[in-house]
Amino acid sequence: MKRLLIAACVWAMAGTAWGQVDVTSAWARATVPGQMGTGAFMTIVSKEGGRLIGAASPVAGVVELHEMSMENNVMKMRPITGLDLPAGREIQLKPGGHHVMLLDLKRPLKAGDKVKIELRLETRDGKRVTQPVEVEVRQGAPAHEAHKQ
Ligand SMILES: [Cu+2]
């Protein structure tokens, strides 16, 4: 147990020291039986500026970045190739806006679970890096209807 705690601390410190971005309020919506996809949300701040270009997760076969928008009074969502992270600006991935879409789920996500998501980022000078974040699964309010498969 003690070793686990130390490992967790080192990991957290590493994230702070070398992370391209600061990630807070990360969560994913719990699934209902039979649901194969769900959204993950978080607040991202890039100190130097960069771009979020993708993500991966051990719990999902496919992970996409999505945006939601109103078109003719209908909420639509579509995959995007990336999301700019201007230096120092808080970018919110949230229900009804941009989100990380976990598709082809390998298991149901229950409230209280922790899920790892690896963010793929492009730095200001064009380098590609990854950064792991831990996301807590929460009971979300309305289902993410458009993503039932
Ligand atoms: Cu989506």
Could you walk me through the main structural features you see in this protein, from its secondary elements to its overall organization?
This protein is 11% helix and 53% strand. The chain starts with a helix and ends in an 11-residue tail after the last strand. Strands 1, 2, 3, 4, 5, 6, 7, 8, 9 and 10 form a ten-stranded mixed beta sheet that branches. Residues 13-17 have low confidence and may be disordered. It is globular, with a radius of gyration of 16 Å. The chain has a single domain (2-140), classed as Immunoglobulin-like (Sandwich). The longest helix has 17 residues, at 2-18. With 149 residues, the protein is mainly β. The chain binds copper (II) ion. Copper (II) ion binds at residues 39, 66, 77, 99, 101, 147.
Key traits:
149 residues; mainly beta; Immunoglobulin-like; 1 helix; 10 strands
The assigned CATH architecture is: Sandwich
| Unreliable residue runs | 13-17
Shape: globular
Give the rounded overall mean pLDDT. 87
Radius of gyration: 16 Å
Report the bound ligands by name, code or SMILES. Answer: copper (II) ion
Let me know the CATH homologous superfamily.
PCu(A)C copper chaperone
**Portion in strands:** over 45%
- Give the N-to-C terminal Cα separation: 40 Å
Number of strands: 10
In total, how many domains does the architecture comprise?
1
Q: What fold name stands as the CATH topology?
A: Immunoglobulin-like
